[in-house]
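Quick question, first post here. What does this chain look like in 3D?
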Amino acid sequence: MKSTVLRLAVTAAFLTGAAPAFANLVYQTGAQQTGTGLGAVNTVVTVQDNGGPQQNGTESGCATFTGGNPATPAQTCLNSLEGGDNTAGNAGTNTYQLSVLNSVAGLESAGQLGFIVNISEGMPGDTATLTDLYMALFSMSGTVLGTFAYNGPDLILTDTGGIGQSGTHRFVLDDAQAAQANALCPDLSQCVVGGGIQFANGTTQATPETVYVGAFERPGGGGGGGGGEVPEPASLALLGAGAMALGALRRRNGKK
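> Answer (accepted):
Ran it through. Tokens below.
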């Protein structure tokens, strides 16, 4: 009995070992979109290390709402991000009242919120290594209601067309965090979204990276952002192994 269950558990662990665990913000690959570059979308942060004040090789920036006009946020980062590399042109740093995103991006609930990170490293195929990304929800007075971070392994993200094209690198809320966002902001007019991003030292160059916010449906999910995600192959394997274990237990108990 123990040996059967142990073998199944080892098989499940082996199959899932290479798969990153779901974090608060889940990375997904989306479809390429043209005409969605800087100035044409709801840009939260634009960062460029070789043009920012830090000049230390670590590209980092953020948009933090402190009350007042969402279009003029502070740049003091949350989640221990370094900051300092925000660029000012084309609404390079901004926060957004969720009711505004309702009208311009079709956001129906806070659980639908997601970020697209657009890599612009000189030419398609060039890369930048993402180390930190977070989304923050604020009250209209500037109080932090909650933060949702990508907590997975560092990601090597590819330039898929530069500033004028984006859409492939998406980060959405997982089911638990979507439910939390909905609870924090049931009234879209009373919440503001901002965020921050940081890349590994020395992995960025050329033109700016951008983060923009929108409303996204996860595969298999509903419009309210609370639907289930499509399981990774390794997750399916784990479920299958668990079912096998239960089946083995039932068969063995049935023989007693």
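Residues 21-222 form one domain.
The chain has one domain: 21-222.
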